[in-house]
Amino acid sequence: MYHLDDDEYLNVPYYRKTRSVCPECLEPIDAEVYEENSQIWMRKSCEEHGQFKDKISSSAKYYKWTHWAIKDKDGNVIWKFDKDGETNPPDCVGEDPRGCPYNCGLCEQHLSTCSLALIDLTNRCNFNCNFCYANVLQSGYLVEPTLEEIDRIMKHFRSKPIPAIAIMFTGGEPTVRKDFPEICKMAKDNGFKEVIVATNGYGFQKKKEGLEWTRKVKEAGLDTLYFQFDGINDATYEKTRGIKNLMAYKQRVVENCRKAGLDSIVLVATIAKGVTDIEVGNIIQYAIDNVDVVRGITFQPVSLCGRIAFEERQDLRITNADVLKIIEEQTGGKISMENAWYPLTTIVEFGRVIAYLADVEPIEFTCHPDCGFASYLVTDPDSGEMMPIMEYFDPLKVIDFANRFWAKIKHKEKKPLRLFEDLLGDFGKTLDKGLNFLDKTQLRARFLLGVLQYMKKPGKLMEMFSRLLMRGDWESVSSFSYGALLLSSMHFQDAYNMDIERAKRCIVHFGVAMPDGNVKEISFCTMNTLHRPNIEKQIAKQVTAKVRNEFDTTTGQAIEEIEQEIARNGGIKKKGDA
Amino acid sequence: MSEKIVKDKDGIKIRKLAELRTSTAKDYEGAMLKRVEEFKDIKGDKSGFNNLLQNTFFKALSTAFDLKVQVDKALGEDNLKKLHKAIDDILLLGL
Fold first, then answer.
1. Does any domain span residue A571?
2. Do residue A213 and residue A359 come from a single domain?
3. Checking DSSP bridges between strand A50-57 and strand A39-46, what pairing results, if any?
4. Residue from B14, B39, B41, B66 to probe the interface with A (highest A Cβ count within 10 Å)
5. What is the CATH number of the domain that holds A280?
6. Are the beta carbons of B95 and A409 separated by less than 8 Å?
7. Residues on chain A touching B87 (C-beta within 8 angstroms)
8. Is residue A419 domain-shared with residue A523, that is, in the same domain?
9. Mean pLDDT highest for which of A140-149, A167-176, A312-321, B11-20?
């Protein structure tokens, strides 16, 4: 944010109005986002339940920067981090007069397409974490779509005019399902380019058949593990998961993935004050040490559920800005808050240019600037050290050039050159193909030169980057991304800090197969804050004695086994557990 | 080692990172640092990295980068801004 250091904008107190929900009754209420003591807060008032206040960002300066806009000399906004994305047609007409987010399904008020489709495969799990929303034991019912229902959800996401490219299986623990490899294959057959599982590692870590199973799911189409990883200390897992000696379990997952050639693991760390915040540097170093299979880290500041008093909430509340500060502190300033991080929305136009020039489907990060931040660490082949890619470029100037470039060429995406086809038939079609190829080649050259004029450091890495932009093939992408880590911080909303402007722009959507044969598409934060209980009541299957007593009728651990393990390890046993 | 490990009062290991450098993925380090050469060796003629024409082009470009950074320094901020604007205008011309 160096370019704004002398800007008057940073001295003007931040203020905007938005809509939110009452944390008690979940009814819609007006809210204000404002600056106080160099922090950003939300305040709102419910007629019935009183006033609520919650911290949105611990750094007003950083927050304001991410809401900054480039204006022309007449004061018109020509670019901002906050985007309105390209949208798919709505699936339903919003009938609830309260509007967003009560009409999820999706309705016409949504402003982004789905970049990541989610399917809850089960609410069964081999762990029994206190804070988890998806737990068959706590809810008392089983939520587990059939293969036909899963296929229906996949087809829903892939049949849209702008189809979702990536799919993530969530839960519960998705890998307790015996048919998990079949589900991965189904995702590939439906055309998803990236198949991801959010997992604690269960299926991958098994001592006897874990390696074989890992090979099998890779073969079936699984690309990436979104791998629950709270740190490198057993004591941390004991606090977060209630089970001792979990680090060896986590290490087995990494080893089996390495042996099976499943080389895309994203470590997912839930950041809670005083519990996992001290592990941030450890996790980054672990990722660097295992950079042959670890592709990134996602830090998730903990979301707060249930009724929590203001003082207690402030003790627990940790925002994206806090995470970025912790990362800076625990990496000796190498990944600095001021220079290394950008809102996910920054690269929307840049991504569209690259996707168009490389003939691939674009990924639209048109979420809200408050949703998440990212940084990309690359290994410099000249020094061997990892550093943020922003060290090599002047990022905002590159982005500005990409924006203008996209504005000029976007019409070509919808309407490729077609000069000879009507005149000469098939031969003309071939000529048109050749012309389009030449056109794209000259566009690539222009874009490359435009981007590279803002390069700050030469060397081998920039040579690789040039190959990537010009060729865009697997080999050049791989050579550039070897030894690279994508770091991100994603703060999911809860009822205390819910901002409807964020909900409208959500790009991560659950798909749920409803009993009437339709599929409901629901944005992530509203599903977990508002809709889940009602939706699950409609789709829940009765918990049979078998499920209740054996916990897992397929491959997961039996409940007795989990209890024995917890007892053996002296772990924390939850109150009210069977 | 690129780190110093300390323990807090609860015995939690905390690494104080000094450099962001890999310390355990040794087998992988060679591939990571010399990845173009790796692809050349593994894929032989099928690798674009063995294409003489492409390599000449990218080597020339690489030399131009070195030169560009020197020129940037010599030009000063104001002149550089003007130069960037001129280059932008040329590259966006006719699109």
1. no
2. no
3. antiparallel
4. B14
5. 3.20.20.70
6. yes
7. 449-450, 453
8. no
9. A167-176
One domain for residues A473 and A512: no
Q: Do A330 and B43 touch (CB under 8 A)?
A: no
User: Is there a domain that residue A573 lies in?
Assistant: no
The verdict on A268 and A170 lying in the same domain is: yes
A460 and A505 in a single domain? The answer is: no
Please give the pLDDT value at position A457: 83
Residues A171 and A311 in one domain: yes
- Name chain B contacts of A263, Cβ cutoff 8 Å: none
State pTM to two decimals. 0.87
Query: A414-473 pLDDT, tens per residue?
Result: 677 777 877 788 888 888 888 888 888 899 889 988 988 888 887 778 888 888 877 777
Q: The sheet that has A28-36: what strands, in order across it?
A: A15-21, A28-36, A39-46, A50-57
Q: Mark whether A337 and A327 lie in a shared domain.
A: no
Is residue A156 included in any domain, yes or no?
Answer: yes
Q: Are A513 and A519 in contact (CB under 8 A)?
A: yes
Q: Which of residues 23-82 of B touch A (CB under 8 A)?
A: 23-25, 27-29, 31-36, 39, 43, 47-49, 54, 58-59, 61-62, 65-66, 68-69
Tally of domains within chain A: 3
Percent of chain A with pLDDT over 90: 46
How far is A333 from A336, CA to CA, in rounded Å?
Answer: 5
Q: B20 CB near a chain A CB, below 8 Å?
A: yes
Q: Domain containing A191: what range?
A: 116-331+369-387+482-542
Longest dimension (CA), chain B: 66
The CA distance from B46 to the nearest CA of chain A, in Å, is 10
Q: Which of B6, B16, B33, B47 should be substituted to probe chain A, the one whose Cβ sees the most A Cβ atoms within 10 Å?
A: B33
Which residue of chain B is at minimal alpha-carbon distance from A408? Answer: B95
Residues from chain B that touch A254, judged by Cβ atoms under 8 A, are: none
**Which residues in chain B touch residue A408, judged by CB atoms under 8 angstroms apart?**
92, 95
Closest Cβ–Cβ partner in A278, A459, A475 for B12: A278
Is A467 at the interface with chain B, CB within 8 A? yes
The SS3 call for residue A271 is strand
| Pick from B14, B21, B68: CB nearest A281 | B14
A530-566 residue pLDDT tens: 999 899 989 987 666 555 554 543 444 555 555 554 4
Q: How many CB pairs under 8 A join A and B?
A: 151
Looking at residue A2, its pLDDT comes to 44
Residues with Cβ within 8 Å of A235's Cβ and at least 6 positions away in sequence, in order, are B10, B11, B12
A38 in any annotated domain? yes
Token pair in block for residue A354 = 């690259």
More confident residue, B62 or A14: A14
Residue A60's contacts (CB-CB under 8 Å, 6 or more residues apart) are: A14, A35, A38, A39, A40
Pairing of strands A77-80, A508-513: unpaired
Alpha-carbon distance B95 to B91, whole Å? 9
A196 and A120 in a common domain? yes
